[in-house]
Amino acid sequence: MKPVYLFVFVFAFLSACQSNKNGEAGIPITKDSLTGNWMIIKLSTTSSKKEYENMMKSVVNPMKNKIEGAIYSFQPSGTLLLDEGGLTLTNGNWQLKDNKQLLIQHQDSTSSPRTIPFSITGYRNDSLVLENIFENKKENLHITYTLKRLKYNYAVPDLFLPVLNKWRQKPLQPESEAALRLRLKQILSYYSAYFANISHNKILFFNTEKVQCPLMFYSDGLGLRPFIISEEWTKLFFDNRDAEKAYIILKQSFVRLKDFPDREKKLALAFSISLETLADDL
């Protein structure tokens, strides 16, 4: 089996977005039109000046791995949820200003709350292009973010549904085998829904590093990594002992996983089906 080590990037860049500057043509930008779930599918900067080279290495490239694949859920009330692929969701607020600027406020673990202004430079056909400025002593760096709306339906669930995110709540005490099975089932069901969203919305990349489960992703199947206590996903359990018990349960379920769906051209959908099969087995 050939491992999937890198993002599957095949971008048909959204030229329609470029032709719709600030909503001047096509669909008008309103708060209602931005409400919903959006995935950042590309982060880029167009500068090629030599003074930007160090900044690209120290600032932009590290940001790409963290930000590409992150999902925002803009709520009608002006609140937001952000899933950066970690164990917890980040809360914040958003505001559309003059139909030209998106103001986003949230707090990460390393900084205090701050509001980041993004200029809306393109919006069309469920695609959104934002730009903000990274200030530097010499010159400012203009960073562009391309986002795709995540549509959902009865078969492809909203990834921010509370019932899909119960696994993020760390237990306050050791769990029984039945409780560990339920937690594993919730985790696998969430990532089945994640890959279903990727497939349904025709997003042509995914970052397997954002999957908080000891899985290996191949072009023709799934595998299981060895158990490592220090891995981030073990923090989902009360302690390392429970995490190891859960790993053994998951490993036993993998033994019973037989056939990988024959969907060469729809790899994300095949992952979704396989993960749901594992969840059902628990």
TrEMBL record:
* Highest rank taxon of the organism: Bacteria
- Which protein, by its recorded name, is this? Lipocalin-like domain-containing protein
Q: Which organism is it from?
A: Niastella soli
